[in-house]
């Protein structure tokens, strides 16, 4: 199973892309865009990381994920997030003495 994650510092000034591979609830290898390579986290991951790192096309695809996936997602979601910032949710809460929201 794989999980992808983007970490943002100062908007998109510094973006880090992580792609983690997990087996039996244990991360065995991951790709870190700051390093630009797959890194082994367990002995099982050593062989897999070496294999993936030997494929230049795969590495290039993961390296550009910062722009393709992270920065693009940030640009798309920022207007939605800033519009919602500070929105009150009290209107959605049930009124005292009633069993449902207004």
UniProtKB/TrEMBL annotation:
InterPro entries: MHC/Immunoglobulin, MHC_I/II-like_Ag-recog, MHC_II_a/b_N, MHC_II_b_N. One of its GO terms (cellular component) is MHC class II protein complex. It is a single-pass type I membrane protein. Residues 4-78 form the MHC class II beta chain N-terminal domain. Its main location: membrane. GO terms for biological process: adaptive immune response; antigen processing and presentation of peptide or polysaccharide antigen via MHC class II. Keywords: Adaptive immunity, Disulfide bond, Glycoprotein, Immunity, Membrane, MHC II, Transmembrane, Transmembrane helix. It is found in: Membrane. This is MHC class II beta chain N-terminal domain-containing protein. It comes from Otus sunia (Oriental scops-owl). The lineage of its organism: Eukaryota, Metazoa, Chordata, Craniata, Vertebrata.
């Amino acid at each position: 199973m794989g999980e992808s994650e983007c970490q943002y510092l100062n908007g998109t000034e510094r973006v880090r892309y992580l792609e983690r591979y997990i087996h039996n609830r244990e991360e065995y290898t991951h790709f870190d865009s700051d390093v630009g390579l797959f890194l082994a986290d367990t002995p099982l991951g050593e062989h897999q990381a070496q294999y993936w790192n030997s494929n230049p096309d795969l590495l290039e695809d993961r390296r550009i994920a910062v722009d393709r996936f992270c920065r693009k997602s940030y640009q798309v979601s920022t207007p939605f997030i800033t519009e919602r910032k500070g929105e009150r949710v009290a209107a959605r809460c049930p009124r005292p003495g009633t069993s449902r929201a207004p």
